[in-house]
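Hi there,

I know you've been waiting on this one. I reran it after we fixed the sequence typo, so this is the corrected version. Both the input and the resulting structure follow.
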Amino acid sequence: MPALPSATTGFIPTSTPVLNSDSKVLYSPSDAWNKSANGPDCAQSGSLYLTHGVNASISFNYTGPSVVVNTISSQNGGRFSVVVDGFNTTSEIDTNTASGGNTSLPLCYPLQFPPFVITPPGYETRINHTIELVFIGPSQSTAESTNMSIGQFDSFAIPDLQSVLGKAKRNHGSLVLKVDLTMLCSLIVVLHDFVF
């Protein structure tokens, strides 16, 4: 499955999936997560990790300017907060599709970060990062009587920005495109701020 671009781009880069069973994906506490026998056909991993436990978390270390989070949306989908490099970005992933929620979400729901609501200080100056998804419970858009929600995690993915840059270089003939990691992260942040 290709990585979705941030809301600021007009193309979809390819990506390298990191399945939920990969030893680099950590679940905490481990007993708060259950592995399903199978997931929907659109899931990268084939199975899902599920939780009802508030503050149950998933963490993953990645290298590069961005990461894709693949979750599953549902009528009783809950919310994850997004913590990057130990910083609460105040970004959330709301997977609820019930009436009052986001009924137009796809079943397999990918989001690419950045953009963040608040970018971690110095994010664009580092290449190694940690993302942590913390399950925070029911969607704010669900009825007050709803206290049962579920977090369903499929996989992470690392966008293949080298192929994107290579295509850009070929498409511009003799123009040589030199983009370093800092410039790329800064561009993503600036474009996000411009659009939003």
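Quick highlight: The longest strand covers residues 128-138.

Best,
R. S.
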